[in-house]
Each structure stands twice: as C-alpha cells, then as structure tokens.
Amino acid sequence: MGKFEYSLGLNELKSKEQRLWQSLIGEFMGNLILNFFACGACTQIENGTFKALAFGLAIFVAITIVGHLSGGHVNPAVTIAMLVAGRISVLRALLYIVFQCLGAIAGTGAVKILLDEHYRGSLGHTALETHVTELQGLGIEFFLGLVLVLTVFGACDSNKPDSRYTAPLAIGMSVTLGHLGTIRYTGASMNPARTLGTAFATDNWNAHWVYWLGPILGGVAAALLYTQVLEAKAPPKNTEAAEKYRTHADEREMRKLEGARDYP
C-alpha cells in the first residue's frame, strides 16, 4: 500500500517537507506571467519575431522565478512528459495541470480587463492558418512539444550538472525557436494551458483539441526518446583512486603497528 500511495502521490498531501501548495502557486504564477506578458505583447504588434522573443523571454523569466518551487514546468505537456518518465507523481501532475490552466486564464483575463477593446485584438490566441488543416496543425504542434521537452530534459539532466545553470535560458530559447519556425501556421502554442487561457478569454474554441493533443504527444515522445536513448550516462566512480587511498591508509596503519611492537 505504501508503494502504491507513493506512486499516486498521496504521501505528498501528508508531507510537511514537500510543500505541494508552494509548487502549485509556482505553476499558477508561471503561467500567469506567460499569458499576461507574452499575450499582452501580441496585442501590440503582428511581427512574428517580436512575438517569438516575447514568449521566449516570458518562459525564461517564469522558470527563473518559480523553478525552485515546482521545477518550472509551466506547461501541461512538460508535466505529462515528467509523469511518463516517472519524475513526478500522478497527483502532483494532475494538480499542476489544473493550476497551470488557472494561471493562464488569469493572465489572459487580466490583459482583457486592463486593456480597452480597441487594443485587445485576438489577445494572442492561437489559430490555424487558412490553408493548414487540423492534422497538419497537429503535426506541427507535435514537433513543437518534442523540441521543447527534449530541451527541458537535456537542460535538467542530473548527469549534466553544468546545464542547470543555463536551463531557464535554454528552455526559453527553445520556445523562441518554435515560434520563429511555425508561428504563422498554428500560432506556435507549444503549451495547452497557454492556448486554453486565450480560448477562454476570446470564447474561440476552433481546433482546440489540436493544441492539447499535439504538444502532449510530442512531449511524451520526447520523454521516451531522451530517457531511453539520449540521457547522459552517470560519470564512472573513481574506484581506482579510492582503492589506492585505502591501500596507503592500510600501509600507514601497518607501519604504526610495527613501530609499536618494536618499542621497548
């Protein structure tokens, strides 16, 4: 029962050390920051490069602020990928997704409330280009989820400790890259919660399933690919040096004992 309780995450409700509530606030805040600032940027200009930088910087800032609390998922696709890889419990994953969605809705809602209707436009809502079918959009969002989650796993690989110092920047840059490559065709969501926030604010649910299924499938594929093929190997333990140290220590002890026996 204990093992089952641990995999589901029920133990986290009792633990005082894990502080699940702080992690949930972190995920809420991360998505609020993303949707408020990045979607706010979309109301000002139609330039794709400008939007790409806005979303990349927003992710960089959000992970820098809340990464130590929750791991800085800020995306249901990342959370589900972590669940598939066994890095988080079922309960934590479900709660993360709920709070990510609430944060995204709050962020876009704040932009809508604070801006006059004249400035709002589509509030940065993602939509398929006229000649892009839903299946094509699904494929594009799949690859966006794939590259994002591969970056997350690569930047947070415990066997590559140096990568952790640049993880927020690397993940932010992967979001920028995704937008630069595909924003014209699908809006480059990469993040189901981000699109849910704008869909809720604009009441536009066209092809909404694409923006959930695509990034999540891409994220799951990335988790399996990284953990099974690409994960860095743990550095070998320096057993030779340890053995040499023990040999020298033994020799010193033997000399002491011999000296003690020779003493009259």
TrEMBL record:
- Gene Ontology CC annotations of this record: plasma membrane
The entry's localization annotation reads: Cell membrane
Q: Where are the transmembrane segments?
A: 20-38, 50-72, 93-115, 135-155, 167-187, 207-227
At the highest ranks, the source species' classification is:
Eukaryota, Metazoa, Ecdysozoa, Arthropoda, Hexapoda
Which Pfam families does the UniProt entry name for this protein? MIP
What InterPro entries does the record tag this protein with?
Answer: Aquaporin-like (IPR023271), Aquaporin_transptr (IPR034294), MIP (IPR000425), MIP_CS (IPR022357)
Q: Which family does it belong to?
A: Belongs to the MIP/aquaporin (TC 1.A.8) family.
Domain of life from the UniProt record: Eukaryota
Named from the GO MF annotations, one term is: channel activity
Keywords assigned by UniProt, alphabetized: Cell membrane, Membrane, Transmembrane, Transmembrane helix, Transport
Give the membrane topology.
Multi-pass membrane protein
Organism per entry = Drosophila busckii (Fruit fly)
Region feature Disordered, mapped onto this chain:
237-264
Q: This protein is called what?
A: CG7777
Where composition is biased (Basic and acidic residues), the residues are: 240-264
